[in-house]
Structure to design on (310 residues):
């Protein structure tokens, strides 16, 4: 097995390599002066089972191209099997035509990854499970739920908890959390009058006196979570914190969260947070390296990965 790290999230790749006790393969992945990407794999990969680790997070287009060009280099170097390990699959939110003459970018990106030469994809918490079907190659969509639920149950009195979905689209995810924790479920009725702006219309469920945990797949501007947290406190909740898989954290989202009524935002390390964000007392990061490491080990050994969903 060979592990190759592109540049989006090297600390995660190193943690996966540590977990597997398998060093990262020596590779140069850098930019020419005009910003084009150059890749050279400095070790023989002929006939190897190769895992390329790259989130397509911000800068999304550069990171995507790095992944595609690295896969191309590996294919041309006669790797036996190439698995694109994409802890955060960007462009996933554009997964349907929301208006006339708009793209389905998630499908286009899936096509590009296959066309570059990937044989499999391993990812975490796709924005929508059905995006798996956009790939015509085997795709394992790992869930971070066990990592988060373990943290939630260790730190809280479960009897007081209320799991909250911040929008109707997240109900299936939130219900799985509530079921696993043994907590009740509430739902925020969120509307998006336009991209990047969210408004809370209503709360479904009695949250008074409860310790609310919002769960979501992405925190981008933080607007969804901050608005939901305020509405929950207005409805009598005792406190609100949030567990989100992918910390996209655009436009000073962490500052917005610091200034909000939310106690804490907990994210996974699928996207590398900035130093400033990491220094914030409002942000805590859980590692998915053991989860991804174990999935890689099982894929390499042709073992079942479904056990990791338990
Ligand atoms: C939407 O469907 C997603 O699950 C997130 O709720 C959304 O991307 C969060 O965006 P923001 O943090 O900008 O409100």
């Amino acid at each position: 097995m060979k592990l190759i790290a592109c540049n989006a999230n090297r600390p995660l790749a190193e943690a996966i390599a540590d977990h597997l006790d398998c060093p990262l393969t020596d590779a140069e992945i850098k930019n020419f002066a005009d910003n084009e990407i150059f890749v050279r794999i400095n070790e023989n990969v002929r006939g190897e089972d190769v895992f390329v680790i790259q989130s397509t997070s911000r800068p999304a287009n550069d990171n995507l191209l790095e992944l595609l060009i690295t896969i191309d280099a590996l294919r041309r170097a006669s790797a036996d099997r190439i698995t694109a390990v994409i802890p955060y699959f960007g462009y996933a939110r554009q997964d349907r035509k929301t208006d006339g003459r708009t793209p389905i970018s998630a499908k286009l990106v899936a096509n590009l990854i296959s066309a570059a030469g990937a044989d499999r994809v391993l990812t975490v918490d796709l924005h929508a499970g059905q995006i798996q079907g956009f790939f015509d190659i085997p795709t394992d969509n790992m869930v971070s739920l066990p990592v988060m639920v373990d943290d939630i149950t260790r730190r809280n009195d479960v009897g007081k908890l209320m799991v909250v979905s911040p929008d109707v689209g997240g109900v299936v995810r939130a219900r799985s959390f509530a079921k696993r924790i043994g907590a009740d479920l509430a739902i925020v009725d969120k509307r998006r009058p336009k991209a990047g702006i969210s408004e809370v219309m209503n709360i479904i469920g009695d949250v008074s006196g409860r310790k609310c945990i919002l769960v979501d797949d992405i925190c981008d501007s933080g607007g969804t979570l901050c608005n939901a947290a305020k509405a929950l406190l207005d409805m009598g909740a005792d406190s609100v914190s949030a567990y989100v898989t992918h910390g996209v954290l655009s436009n000073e989202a962490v500052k917005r969260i610091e200034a909000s009524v939310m106690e804490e935002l907990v994210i996974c390390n699928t996207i590398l947070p900035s130093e400033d964000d990491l220094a914030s007392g409002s942000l805590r990061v859980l590692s998915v390296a053991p989860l991804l490491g174990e999935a890689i080990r099982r894929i390499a050994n042709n073992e079942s990965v479904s056990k990791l969903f338990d």
About this structure: The domain at 145-287 is CATH 3.40.50.2020 (Rossmann fold).
